[in-house]
Write a structure and sequence with these properties.
The structure holds two protein chains of two kinds.
Chain A lengths: L2 H38 L8 H6 L3 E2 L7 E2 L2 H32 L2 H14 L4 H20 L7 H26 L2 H9 L4 H12 L1 H17 L2 H6 L17 H9 L7 H35 L1
Antiparallel strand pairs in A: 1-2
Helix pairs in contact in A: 1-12, 3-6, 3-9, 4-6, 5-6, 6-9, 7-8, 9-12, 11-12
Chain B lengths: L1 H27 L3 E5 L1 H17 L5 E6 L1 H9 L5 E4 L5 H9 L4 E10 L1 E5 L6 E3 H9 L16 E5 L4 H9 L11 E3 L2 H10 L3 E5 L16 E3 L1 E3 L6 E2 L4 H6 L5 E9 L4 H11 L1 H9 L8 H10 L1
Parallel strand pairs in B: 1-2, 1-3, 6-11, 7-8, 7-9
Antiparallel strand pairs in B: 3-13, 4-13, 5-9, 5-10, 11-12
The chains are: A mainly alpha, B alpha/beta.
Amino acid sequence: MTKRTLRNLQERALRAFFLFNGIIAIVALVGIFVLLLTSSFPAFREVDLFKFLSEKIWDPTAPDIPLYGILSQIVSSLMVTAVALVIAVPIGIGVAAYLSDVAHWRVREIVKPVIEVLAAIPSVVIGFLGIVLVGPFLAKISGRTHGLNALNGAVLLAVMSLPTIISISEDALSAVPSAYGEASLALGASKWQTIVRVKLPAALSGIIAAIMLGMGRAIGETMTVLMATGNARSFPTGLFDSVRTLTSNIAIELGEVPYFTTHYYALFAIGLVLFLMTFLINLLADIFLRKYQEHEL
Amino acid sequence: MNEKWIKILVLAGLALAIVFTPVLMSQSRKMIQVKGSDTLVNLVQILAENFMEKNPSVPLAVLGGGSSTGISALLNGTCDIADASRDWKQKEFDQAWEKGIKVKLFALAIDGLSIVVNEKNPLNELTMDQVAALYRGEVKKWKDVGGADLKVSLYGRQSNSGTYAFLLEHVLKNKPYSTDMKEMNGNAQIIEGILSDEAGIGYTGVGYVVDKSTGQVMKGLKVLKISKAKGQPSYSPLDKEAVYSGNYPISRALWQATNGTPTGGVKAFIEYELSPEGQKVVEAEGFFPIQGPLAEKNRENLK
């Protein structure tokens, strides 16, 4: 063997290796989707799909007639996630803009790693904070007797998604060519105008990606909401109601459900709904992003 | 060439060793798995620790998860002892029979299922019907059962809990729980909720309401007396005599189940739990020791 063919071989082996890795990701995704689909399909032999999505009451272990309605859970999940984002996005982008454009580089060098460490705190710990700290505080300011409600979950999820949003937004803002900012300042714009009118729009795709990842974290998070939101099965009527999200419901019931029963399949169907919801959100974000970029060009 | 082959053989040998070591390890150090009821988990944990001090050769792992979780684990062959704070359902006995599992039941302790409220709640007692009405959501204001003018805030367990199932069957008479009930992850979380919620009501095993360091009911908590019906005397679950005699209306046995007559380490552990020494631990943890016909039945099942 000559040296040249050996190197050629190495090159090809490496290429195959990377291709293999890429394929694994796709196979995993397709595999999960197929598994969810086949495991949830049998549920609909006994449960009407329309009722599944539109009925409010979930009580599969009811002594008389089991009820399989997930509307309350869908609304709860969306409510908690939406409120979490309302809290986390302004703060996250604010911090990111501060770190990339205002803060002294020494401050940034310290603050950014600290924020990233926040992401490493286990969700059980955050949930515990919800029980002993955020819950009682919310109860006090709202004049209610307890704070195990949707807002508690949303506040905690906001805290959990902040590191993702800040870190990736900051990267996006730092990646904006410095000439943009310099040109803006040279034209007489203030620092505020430069950040809001020039840098944020230029980094928008990265910031939206950051928000999407934060949202993914929020909607899929289980342990924290399980501990903090009270898990009542009622249809939520406000932020101070105890709610049960899709993820909590799966976590609560999958451990005890007898295998291969309608209840078991229905839990997979909830997983499928969750999967489709996140998929749809990602798709919408993608479409929106593309539209925006075309508009810009 | 020869050298290459040797290298390949050595590498293959190493790879095999890496693959098989965990398998061999897990076989030589087989743990006895105890799983199930969250009401029992603290008690069994302490019993296991005491037992292992004297028998270090028998390693035990005690997990919670809820009665149903433990029972399914026994049925699926993933645990050796299943803890349950409710009776086994006929459906579960049927599943065991289908799988060829011979269920042997041991009553480990007697529990007075306690209805707890915050210390600030002016009520001291409720009837069974009132408890049922509260948990079904038929009564939404404390005022309607003689309490303060506050909205009732229900705390309960999740559907895998034996306590959840026990209350549903014996108190709510199989009419569903209110969907407004907050479903907590375990007894400790219910207590945590009640301590900070003056309109809260919760249910838990009697072993959870006593502060172990003082032997008194936990500070901030009030254990309600329960009467069978209006006009009848009410009793506290902390009253040993009332729980044994059945005057306290929601007392129950806490069970452990094995597949077939226990042998080896499992047998030694259960014998320890049921011995006077083990039953003393049961009492120290706030539950009541087994006596009478149940103790007789335990002895029979061990043979």
